[in-house]
């Protein structure tokens, strides 16, 4: 149960031309504006109000994480009103090509998904899945929930 305290909601701190920065006293996460803008579109554009999602990639530094690449929903993903299952192989393919093309520096960072109807708070299932990811990956991960009105960033780790 103690793992549940490891999901930390981060505040927006500042932005420059290329990045929005989220964090607290200990962590700083730089998120590419391309990603921020794309996720906004996904929360508005979906007429069926099914969840969308994808994977986050970027670079890990001593004092923070920079997220520069991401995937968006693929044909074989399962999109439902209250869940998104990332089952399409193309997410993994993108991870593998980024990893090798960047000289093994552009790493898996985490996951994003939308809540087309609700707020950007993680559900019980979201938290459980994130903790499982963190435990199996053994490195802190970053997750994002985009709701129609909110872009919320979470740090999952210790
Ligand atoms: Zn969710």
Keywords:
single chain; 158 residues; alpha+beta; Cytidine Deaminase, domain 2; eight-stranded mixed barrel; two-stranded antiparallel sheet; 3 helices; binds zinc ion
Can you describe this structure in just a few lines?
The chain has helices spanning 33-45, 90-101, 124-137, and strands spanning 7-15, 19-23, 28-32, 53-61, 64-70, 78-80, 83-85, 107-114, 141-146, 151-156.
Largest sheet: 8 strands, mixed, barrel
Q: How much is the average pLDDT?
A: 91
Going by helix content, strand content and strand pairing, the class is alpha+beta
CATH topology: the name is Cytidine Deaminase, domain 2
Strand content: 35-45%
| Low-pLDDT windows of residues | none
Task: Kindly report how far apart the N and C termini lie.
Answer: 13 Å
Q: Specify the number of helices.
A: 3
Helix content: 10-25%
CATH superfamily: Cytidine Deaminase, domain 2
């Amino acid at each position: 149960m103690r793992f549940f305290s490891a999901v930390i909601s981060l505040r927006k701190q500042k932005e420059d031309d290329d990045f929005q920065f989220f964090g607290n006293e200990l962590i700083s996460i730089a998120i590419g504006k391309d990603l921020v803008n794309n996720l906004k579109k996904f929360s508005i554009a979906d007429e069926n109000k099914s969840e969308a999602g994808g994977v986050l990639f970027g670079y890990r530094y001593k004092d923070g994480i920079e997220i520069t690449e991401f995937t968006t929903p693929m044909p074989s993903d399962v999109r439902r009103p209250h869940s998104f299952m990332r089952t399409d192989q193309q997410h993994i393919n993108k991870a593998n090509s980024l990893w090798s093309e960047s000289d093994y520096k552009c790493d898996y960072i985490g996951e994003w998904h939308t809540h087309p109807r609700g707020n950007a708070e993680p559900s019980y299932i979201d938290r459980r899945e994130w903790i499982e990811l963190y435990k199996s990956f053994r490195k802190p991960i970053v997750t994002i929930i985009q709701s129609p009105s909110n872009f919320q960033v979470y740090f999952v780790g210790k």
